[in-house]
From TrEMBL:
Domain HTH merR-type: 8-77
InterPro entries in UniProt: DNA-bd_dom_put_sf (IPR009061), MerR-type_HTH_dom (IPR000551), MerR_fam (IPR047057)
Protein name (database record): HTH merR-type domain-containing protein
Stored PANTHER family: MULTIDRUG-EFFLUX TRANSPORTER 2 REGULATOR (PTHR30204:SF85), REDOX-CYCLING DRUG-SENSING TRANSCRIPTIONAL ACTIVATOR SOXR (PTHR30204)
Keywords: DNA-binding
Keyword Kinase assigned: no
One example GO MF annotation: DNA binding
Origin: domain of life: Bacteria
Length: 83
């Protein structure tokens, strides 16, 4: 098994972890809320373990009814703080 498959989730695997469709992840990517960690030349998208925890925050914020714009701003600030 290569390092990439041990470190990253495919978009399908990542969506399954949250019981969401891949289209939901594409939507979040298009709206600059959560972009994949890595996109291969063939378009395959991969998400990191760290993004699992970030996406968990996003899901919980959505459950609280927080608008996507506010979530996007929060995640952007969070990433700027930690990166």
């Amino acid at each position: 098994m290569n390092k990439l498959s041990e470190t990253y989730f495919t978009i399908g695997e990542f969506a399954s972890l949250f019981k969401l469709s891949k289209q939901t992840l594409f939507y979040y990517e298009r709206n600059n809320i959560l972009k994949p960690s890595y996109i291969e030349e063939n378009g395959y998208r991969y998400y990191s373990l760290e993004q699992y925890f970030i996406f968990d925050i996003i899901i919980n914020m959505r459950k609280l009814g927080i608008p996507l714009k506010e979530i996007a701003d929060y995640i952007k600030n969070l990433m700027n703080f930690f990166c």
